[in-house]
Amino acid sequence: LSYYSNEKAYIISVVMTPGCCGAEYIDRHKESQEALNMLGCNKLIPLNFEDTRLYLQIKEMISSLEYIIENETPQDVEITRVYTMNNTDRHQDHIAVYQASMVACRYIPQILGYETPSTCLSFLPQVFESVDEVHFNKKILALQKHKSQIHRRYIQPEYIIAQAKFRGQQVSHSMCEGFVVHKMVL
Prior knowledge:
The protein contains six helices and six strands; from the N terminus they run αβαβαβαββααβ. By secondary structure, the protein is an alpha/beta fold. The strands form two sheets. It has a four-stranded mixed beta sheet. A two-stranded parallel ribbon has the order 1-2. Helix 2 packs antiparallel against helix 5 and helix 3 packs across helix 4 (92-104).
């Protein structure tokens, strides 16, 4: 994300739920806003779908995403790539977001699925993006803004570094992020 903001890409992030089930009494939308600001996100759109029940709200999520694509993107911006959840994710909300994204983003030429802690056992990336130290350090600092999650092992800097080094090793680079291809029109 940080890399693309430097390349003058217009970046919109949509957060589907307030994340209350994972951290009561903490404003997780605020955490996301602070983290995404650090990474150069142009616009955050926080939605308020009910945590752990997104599978019951797929139709509404599709409508929300289609509305955002049509009405929340500047007229001079062409959406060419979407990053979304992965279809092998174990988290029920992540699977629902993936399903809604695939329908709502059907006219966007590139859709990539990113790695989450709940995909670790089944994630097989097909596309890798090299990450330099400057942008990677921004990512680590941004993740630390998620104070409600800081106790989790997967958000610790050493975990994030090990993961990036492993993905880099897979393709003979120092550090990378991996993605699965849901759709790739070049």
